[in-house]
């Protein structure tokens, strides 16, 4: 038997639909060596805290956060990728498909993770990432003050050379939470400035991909401040 919606139900549905229809969704991939803290950073931004425990990411984990920016609602879909080659090789082409922004992460206490940055940039270039896709460099674990191996000076030079803003932060230290916020808010503002509606560019993944992925969808209120890309 067919049921009829009341007028108020219909208008409620329509407004939900129109809001949904207009919500732009941006795919951001987070890449870098294993153990640099990609999972913790994305969890901090989407879940609002440092995770109790993490394991090496296999394939990709998705985390989402809805933001309200200047009256527009946008959704950031973070692709927390695997750093270990054996856990990422079958997924790499999916990471780069229809990507809107890239966050490169190194561990400030591990020089090798910084020295590998050119290899991560090469991987992006090999997948023909357009030059207008915003990129951000993030040094994580700044809370480990006695163990720092990558100086700000060195990282800033590299960031300037590649025309990327640099953020040094900690997913672990609660007092750095605003800084983690700033990383993604910087991207959100850059992406929002894009004129085109991006709904068509939603990532497509098949059932095999989905089996390998944990989907975590957390919508949080906008918080913290934003800044424009320094680049
Ligand atoms: N001190 C400190 N430790 C951190 C921080 N972020 C992450 N860690 C620790 O670093 C380890 C690796 O963190 P993950 O987030 O799992 O690293 P990942 O980059 O996702 O690693 P893969 O999934 O293997 O690519 C964990 O033991 C975390 O607790 C941080 O800001 N400070
Ligand atoms: Mg991980």
Question: Your description of this structure?
Answer:
The protein has helices at residues 7-22, 38-47, 85-88, 92-96, 111-115, 117-126, 152-161, 177-192, 207-212, and strands spanning 24-31, 60-69, 72-81, 101-107, 135-140, 166-168, 214-217. A seven-stranded mixed β-sheet has the order 6-5-4-1-3-2-7, with helices on both faces. The chain is of the alpha/beta class and 231 residues long. Helices cover 35% and strands 21% of the residues. The protein is built from nine helices and seven strands; from the N terminus they run H-E-H-E-E-H-H-E-H-H-E-H-E-H-H-E. The model is unreliable at 1-8, 10-18 and 195-231 (pLDDT under 50). The protein has a single domain, classed as P-loop containing nucleotide triphosphate hydrolases (Rossmann fold, 3-Layer(aba) Sandwich), CATH 3.40.50. The site of guanosine-5'-triphosphate has 20 residues, from helix 2. It catalyses: GTP + H2O = GDP + phosphate + H(+). Keywords: GTP-binding, Hydrolase, Lipoprotein, Membrane, Methylation, Nucleotide-binding, Prenylation. It is a lipid-anchor. It is found in: Endomembrane system. This is small monomeric GTPase.
């Amino acid at each position: 038997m067919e049921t009829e919606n009341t007028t108020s139900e219909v208008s409620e549905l329509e407004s939900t639909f129109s809001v949904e229809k207009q919500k732009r969704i941006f795919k951001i991939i987070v890449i870098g060596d294993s153990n640099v803290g990609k999972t913790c950073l994305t969890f901090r931004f989407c879940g609002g805290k440092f995770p109790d425990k993490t394991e090496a990411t296999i394939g990709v984990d998705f985390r989402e956060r809805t933001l309200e920016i200047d009256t527009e609602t946008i959704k950031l879909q973070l692709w927390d990728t695997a750093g270990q080659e054996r856990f990422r090789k079958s997924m790499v082409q999916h990471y780069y498909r229809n990507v809107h922004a890239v966050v490169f992460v190194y561990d400030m206490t591990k020089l090798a993770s910084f020295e590998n940055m050119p290899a991560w940039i090469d991987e992006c270039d090999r997948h023909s990432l357009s030059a207008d896709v915003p990129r951000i460099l993030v040094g994580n674990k700044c809370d480990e003050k006695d163990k720092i191996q990558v100086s700000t000076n060195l990282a800033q030079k590299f960031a300037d050379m590649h025309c990327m803003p640099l953020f040094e932060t900690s997913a672990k230290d609660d007092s750095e939470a605003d800084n983690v916020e700033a990383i993604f808010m910087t991207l959100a503002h850059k992406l929002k400035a894009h004129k085109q509606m991006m709904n068509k560019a939603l990532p497509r993944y098949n059932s095999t991909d989905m089996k390998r992925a944990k989907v975590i969808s957390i919508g949080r209120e906008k918080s913290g401040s934003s800044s424009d890309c320094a680049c």
